[in-house]
Design a protein that fits this description.
The complex is a heterodimer of chains A (about 120) and B (about 110). Chain A contains no helices and 11 strands. Chain A is mostly beta strands and about 120 residues long. Classes of the chains: A mainly beta (about 120), B mainly beta (about 110).
Chain lengths: ~120, ~110
């Protein structure tokens, strides 16, 4: 299957700082990338849909100014959590859909565990 | 809004027995239904999927069935093994937007 990487795998930061998470599709071009957050023992909640070269589409209740998404190329999308607070601590996972496996198949990155102190 | 219901939330089976997980979706435009397996702290891994023009698909010990009329789809795992223990998520596409709506997950425990 298609390979998606995510960096960093875990990050610990102080309250008020910003954290950038990168998501890369390694062996295919991803026209669309998705960002999810997952709390312990819960399902994946879609935060936003990111299309290369255009603004991200955010789900209801997700603050676009807090969770900045940039999809600069067909292989890279970034999520920046601005002014992070303890309640932003979560597991953030990206996925990529594209030419490999059909556009409606999403392949997930390994996730980033964010802990805000 | 559109949603996907998944049952049961937890499931314990003896090694060698079968496990069945059921999902119901609400969006009649959904046309693709993947199943993911997620181990603790790891990424969700696609294990099988089915498109709306197919009623059943099988891959070794894993099968998925789809009833479009009833908006049900199910995951069947036969001859379960301890390494099948994980959380399983079903998903359905939301219309033609390629977005997934995930079910709430089923924690499967296979007892040796």
């Amino acid at each position: 299957g298609a390979v998606v990487s995510q960096h960093p795998s875990r990050v610990i930061c102080k309250s008020g700082t910003s954290v950038k998470i990168e998501c890369r599709s390694l062996d295919f071009q991803a026209t669309t990338m998705f960002w999810y957050r997952q709390f312990p023992k819960q399902s994946l909640m879609l935060m936003a849909t990111s299309n290369e070269g255009s603004k991200a589409t955010y789900e209801q209740g997700v603050e676009k100014d807090k969770f900045l998404i940039n999809h600069a190329s067909l292989t890279l999308s970034t999520l920046t959590v601005t002014s992070a607070h303890p309640e932003d601590s979560s597991f953030y996972i990206c996925s990529a859909g594209g030419t490999s496996g059909g556009v409606d198949t999403q392949y997930f990155g390994p996730g980033t565990r964010l802990t805000v102190l | 809004g559109e949603n996907v219901e998944q049952h049961p939330s937890t499931l314990s089976v003896q090694e060698g027995d079968s496990a069945v997980i059921k999902c119901t979706y609400s969006d009649s435009a959904s046309n693709y239904f993947p199943w993911y397996k997620q181990e603790l702290g790891k990424r969700p891994q696609l294990i099988i999927d089915i498109r709306s023009n197919v009623g059943e698909k099988k891959d070794q010990r894993i099968a998925v069935t789809l009833n479009k009329t009833a908006k049900h789809f199910s995951l069947h795992i036969t001859e379960t093994q301890p390494e099948d223990s994980a959380v399983y998520f079903c998903a359905a596409t939301q219309g033609a937007a390629y977005k997934y709506i995930f079910g709430t997950g089923t924690r499967l425990k296979v007892l040796a």
